[in-house]
Amino acid sequence: MGSVILAGLFFISSTCIEVLGFSNTGVFISQTEEPLSFLSQQTGMGFLGELVGLGALFGFFACILGSINPVTRVAFLMARHG
């Protein structure tokens, strides 16, 4: 239960920080395609936006691998047992 509460607090605090970061830019958060990249460019650390994009790319790859591996095992067992 503690990890759920900790994850919820992290999500809420990061959301509040992101909304506060957009408060003085004159751009709405809903109008940007990559909000974290935009905020990193506004603070002068544009490389952090690229780092977040790279992390998202690796995360998508991990999700695909996590989905493909069990499917192949289930298909193999179904083919084996008829």
Attribute tags:
82 residues
Specify the structural class: mainly alpha
Calculate Rg over CA atoms. 19 Å
Order of helices and strands: HHH
Q: Proportion of β residues?
A: under 5%
Mean pLDDT: 90
What is the overall shape?
elongated
Task: Describe this entry's structure for a reader.
The protein has helices at 2-22, 35-42, 46-81. The chain has one domain (2-81). The protein is elongated and about 65 Å long. The protein is an all-alpha fold and 82 residues long.
Topology summary:
Blueprint: H1 2-22, H2 35-42, H3 46-81
Helix pairs in contact: 2-3
Concise account of the structure shown:
The chain is mostly helical and 82 residues long. It contains 3 helices and no strands.
